[in-house]
């Protein structure tokens, strides 16, 4: 079973996405801020992190979170999400930190599921 960490400050949105992914057989973990995201990434060792770009201040933003995670995990797949377009300066900066994919918000659940399937295969950890 593949593990997905949802790092987003919007609790209702995270819960909705997580419930949908759980029904597909993913093991889902949540983080509502940067510190929790980093701790969960260390503890749970997810296969994929669904990471929001923007978090309220004070606190870390998505780039700072990703930078911290890359210090101990260079391989985890990261899907960056944002209401900003893919051409935004912040999104371009994340490309250098090794994001696997960018998905615009609001998220299209069908597109997210297809992206996860492409990244981790049939949810048994075997790529397609």
Detailed description of the structure:
The protein has 128 residues and is of the alpha/beta class. It has one domain (3-120): 3-Layer(aba) Sandwich (Rossmann fold). 41% of the residues lie in helices and 20% in strands. The chain has five helices and five strands, in the order E-H-E-H-E-H-E-H-E-H. A five-stranded parallel sheet has the order 2-1-3-4-5, sandwiched between helices. Helix 2 runs parallel beside helix 3. The two termini are 15 Å apart.
Provide tags for this entry.
Rossmann fold; 41% helix; 128 residues; disordered C terminus; alpha/beta; 20% strand
Return the domain count: 1
Rounded average pLDDT: 89
Order of helices and strands: EHEHEHEHEH
The count of DSSP E runs of length 2 or more, i.e. the number of strands, is 5
Low-pLDDT residue intervals, each spanning 5 or more residues: 124-128
| Overall CATH class | Alpha Beta
Provide a count of the helices.
5
